[in-house]
Amino acid sequence: MIVELGAGLGPITTHATQRMHPESRIIAIERDPDLAAYARQAAPRALVISGDAADVAAILADQAIDRVDVIVNGLPTPSLPHEIKRRIFDWMATLPGPVMMSQLTVMPWVYLPMYRHLFERVDFDLVLANVPPGGIYHCHGLREGYAAWL
């Protein structure tokens, strides 16, 4: 199961559905109902839910989803209000097995130290084709003391 937080217009959702295993599923959460409707059209193989990412635990419970293989995070995590970040990361901490999250960013390397405090291992891929250049933090294994760094 792939969970996408902040689907927007659905470009990452679409990309993921085109490349995921045929038996995989993706659920994308987007707060703006107009963007969610657009993402549904762009990525019909995805289940796009209009809802708040802070409610991800309840949204997945409503869908009877208890296992997540990867989280694709399009939210501006460092800029989110503390309570929202805390709810999202507390949900991640309940997931069985090591958490794997890919965080999109338009500020390459700026938040690398923060993610290294939150996760056991963090790799970074620079994406020059993005305008402005951006990147992806690939984060593995949420640390036990993550809450102190939110």
TrEMBL record:
This is Ribose ABC transporter permease. Residues 7-73 form the RCK N-terminal domain. GO terms for biological process: potassium ion transport. Pfam families: TrkA_N. Gene3D superfamilies: Vaccinia Virus protein VP39.
